[in-house]
Amino acid sequence: MLAFIYYYTKIHKCPPAEADIASYFGVSPPSTHQSIMALERNGLISRTPGQARAIRVLLPRTALPDLE
What we know:
Blueprint lengths: L1 H11 L5 H8 L3 H13 L3 E3 L7 E3 L11
Antiparallel strand pairs: 1-2
Helix pairs in contact: 2-3
C-alpha cells in the first residue's frame, strides 16, 4: 500500500483518496480506512486530519518496493 500511495502521488501530483486505494486493491472502504489508520499509528505515513487526499509516505523511496 505504501508503494501505491507513493507512486500514485508521483504520477497524479496529489495523494490518492481512500476510494482510489480500495479500488486498486479490491478491498472495502472500511478495510482501507483501517489500514491507513494502522500505517499512521506505526509512523509510516502522515495525514492532515479533516483534509482530503492528505496522505504522505514517510519512508524513503529506497525502502519501497516497485509496483508491477
